[in-house]
Write a structure and sequence with these properties.
Chain A contains 10 helices and 20 strands. By secondary structure, chain A is of the alpha/beta class. Helix content of chain B is 39%, strand content 28%. Classes of the chains: A alpha/beta, B alpha/beta. Chains A and B meet through helix 8 and helix 9 of A and helix 2, strand 7, helix 3 and strand 8 of B.
Chain lengths: 438, 254
């Protein structure tokens, strides 16, 4: 109890200091929103195991620490900045160091006219109309405590805006590099991506750390996919293995829009991803795929919601977990098909491999179907490496470790293969290989 | 090359092999025939190293070494190969990846240089022709969506690439039509040499028309009840396994 009070108190007490630090970057409207969010944060309760949505995920380890905002601006070398790029892929690069946008290390290629990619604080200054229209509209800071916290402390984050009809050829690779030392910092990336009608863009959110420090990432991303727009989204989470990562992604899909998100997660001692997609218009397509690799005492929790609020939409969800040692995985995939959402196709699958006797996974598909002309399915499996397949490989001369690695790669392969960008596929295969060789 | 001495094998407490004696030398082709349930596949799987089977008595020596103490992968690396009766499907692992990894592990074991992708592809080109498989199958997942004939041809293809000293073909003819059978047999015949040996486990004599054995052993109720030359296979075909059962009983009561 004390920890919880302390944890919340610090943020409430520190708020004025924080607002002062914003200098001129505050508008009356944003100030109002921030204050309201802070009030909500102090009134809402932190989740406990008694809350249905947090039943298997105990966040009390997070509350043991006093996290502070990073006090100094860390500078990084170009070498470090380019360490996390993907081979020869040409991309627009936005770098955030300990949560703060680093213009020096970022690099934009030739973006189509009117396209913007940069920091959200710049957007709040320069494009208030877009911010006004979309910021905070897709995620709730009135009943979600971590979103409330993020909203109260919104300062840094990535902003991408693609105007109507524009196609952004090169992916936008956003890298959040967090390297804390003695301070236990909290970074709160607040991202907003807007793809206007008929536009196309690929966005990669990439979380990395240079060491095993303890820090807390509280990320909120709002994504708007307007009529006929296509957004290909990736989230690669390679945080420090002692970090806490709580992330919410809210996706608003308009008519005939196409949204795909691939998530690969290997880092963090506790990871909680909430991904909510909502069809606000007919004919939309949504794909949510994920792969999580857990070892030691890591905990990973993915809660997804696909809201078929309109008819004639298709959704496809495939999450795969590979768990070793004493790790724990939680998958809760909810598909809501509302009464008028006829001709819905919704497919959901969660498959898990346990590599040790102490690994544990809780998987819970939830289909709430209120329409009658729909095709929905869900499936979940929890198993071990196929013994027959392993023997077959051994009988050809392949040793135990190599055989296990081959079969685990095979298990993960369909999720990785569905990624459209080859260099991200290769990078993901490398992450998997590195983890298997440890 | 292979010496099996008084081998007794059980699974889940049930005795399957009850004292097998067998000697195989380089350059020889041995056929092991027998009715269903006689223990033919058990023998093949035990030699390959399947752990579910428990060896309760007896010994097996492979080139003078105690085979039963070796792991399945070491047996393969030392030149033993099993063509499975029911090859398993492995989605997500391509045929080319499996073979290249296996070949390189075997080469590494013998302190030979590993092959890179290009050298490997050149090596396997004519082996593919041997079993009439085309390049498209290389990228496909191991045995996934393969017909029975394709699976068996894939086993022989792997055998051709890995070049074993002792090949065990477990009912390689089961489920094959005559054309597929001819392709498989042709492959095996081309790979035969005076330096290697082949054990053909089969229920029917048909395959032995194409792969002519030097020795035929009949396995019945866990024991080899009769051994002979290739004529024995014809006799079995004519008289059926009951003939042996009756003559065995006669011997016992006689």
């Amino acid at each position: 109890m004390d920890n919880i009070i302390e944890f919340k108190e610090w943020f409430v007490k520190n708020f004025n200091t924080f607002e002062d630090s914003l200098n001129g970057e505050n508008t009356p409207e944003l100030h109002r929103v921030r204050k309201e969010a802070l009030k909500n944060f102090s009134e809402l309760s932190l989740p406990t195991l008694k809350d249905e949505e947090w039943r298997y995920t105990n966040i009390s380890p997070l509350l043991k620490y006093n996290f502070t905002l990073p006090s100094e601006d860390l500078k990084i070398s170009d070498e470090l900045a380019s360490k996390y790029l993907f081979g020869e892929m040409e991309s627009n690069i936005l770098i955030f160091v300990n949560g703060k946008f680093s213009k020096e290390n970022s690099k934009l290629l030739n973006l189509p006219e009117g396209t913007m990619a940069g920091s959200i604080s710049d957007a709040m200054k320069n494009n208030p109309e877009i911010i006004e229209k979309h910021f905070g509209k897709y995620t709730s800071y009135s009943n979600q405590i971590f979103t409330a916290l993020s909203t109260a402390y919104t300062k840094n984050g990535a902003f991408v805006y693609v105007p109507e009809g524009k196609i952004v050829e090169d992916p936008i690779h956003i890298i959040f590099i967090t390297t804390a030392s003695e301070e236990k910092i909290i970074i709160q990336p607040r991202n907003l991506f807007v793809a206007s009608k008929n536009s196309q863009v690929t966005i990669i959110e990439h979380f990395v750390s240079e060491n095993d420090s303890i820090y807390f990432t509280n990320a909120v991303t709002e994504i708007v996919v307007e009529d006929n727009a296509i957004v290909d989204h990736y989230k690669l989470q390679e945080e420090s293995k002692n970090a806490f990562h709580i992330a919410r992604v809210e996706i608003d899909q308009k008519r005939s829009s196409n949204f795909t998100s691939h998530s690969i997660s290997t880092g963090g001692v506790i990871t909680r991803n909430d991904i909510n997609a909502r069809f606000n218009g007919e004919g939309g397509e949504c794909t949510l795929n994920g792969l999580f690799l857990l070892e030691d005492k890591q905990l990973f929790d993915a809660h997804t919601l696909i809201d078929h609020a309109s008819p004639l939409c298709n959704s496809h969800e495939h999450y795969k977990g590979i768990l070793d040692d004493h790790s724990r995985g939680v998958f809760n995939g909810k598909v809501l098909v509302r009464q008028d959402a006829q001709k819905t196709n919704a497919f959901q699958q969660n498959n898990n491999i346990l590599l040790s006797n102490n690994a544990l996974v809780n998987t819970k598909p939830q289909l709430e179907i209120f329409a009658d002309d729909v095709k929905c399915s869900h499936g979940a499996t929890i198993g071990q490496i196929d013994e027959e397949a392993r023997f077959y490989l051994k009988s050809r001369g392949i040793g135990e470790e190599a055989a296990n690695a081959i079969l685990i790669h095979a298990f993960a392969s369909d999720v990785i293969k569905s990624m459209k960008i080859e260099s991200v596929r290769n990078y993901s295969e490398d992450i998997l290989s590195k983890r298997l060789n440890q | 090359m292979l010496e099996v001495k008084n081998l007794h094998v059980s699974i889940n407490g049930n005795k399957i092999l009850k004292g097998i004696n067998l000697t195989i030398n380089a350059g020889e082709v041995h056929a092991i025939m027998g009715p269903n349930g006689s223990g033919k596949s058990t023998l093949a799987l035990v030699l390959a190293g399947r752990e579910e089977y428990e060896v309760t008595d007896g010994e097996v020596f492979y080139n003078g070494e105690n085979l039963l103490e070796l792991s399945p992968e070491d047996r393969a690396r030392k030149g033993l190969f099993l063509a499975f009766q029911y090859p398993v499907e492995i989605p997500g692992v391509s045929n080319v990846n499996l073979l290249k990894t296996a070949l390189n592990e075997i080469r590494k074991f013998h302190n030979e240089e590993e092959l890179d992708a290009i050298d490997f592809l050149n090596l396997i080109k004519d082996k593919m022709k041997l079993v009439e498989l085309d390049e498209s199958f290389l990228k496909r997942s191991v045995n996934e969506g393969f017909s029975g004939g394709e699976k068996k041809r894939n086993e022989i293809f792997q055998m051709a690439v890995l070049n074993p000293k002792l090949a065990i073909l477990d009912e390689t003819d089961s489920g094959l039509d005559i054309d597929a059978l001819k392709v498989v047999a042709n492959g095996v015949n081309k790979l035969k040499s005076k330096d290697n040996a082949t054990i053909i486990v089969t229920h029917y004599q048909r395959l032995l028309d194409y792969i002519v054995p030097d020795f035929v052993h009949v396995l019945y109720d866990g024991k080899i009840v009769k051994s002979g030359g290739k004529e024995l296979a014809f006799e079995l075909e004519e008289k059926g396994y009951d003939w042996l059962k009756n003559s065995k009983e006669k011997v016992v009561t006689g």
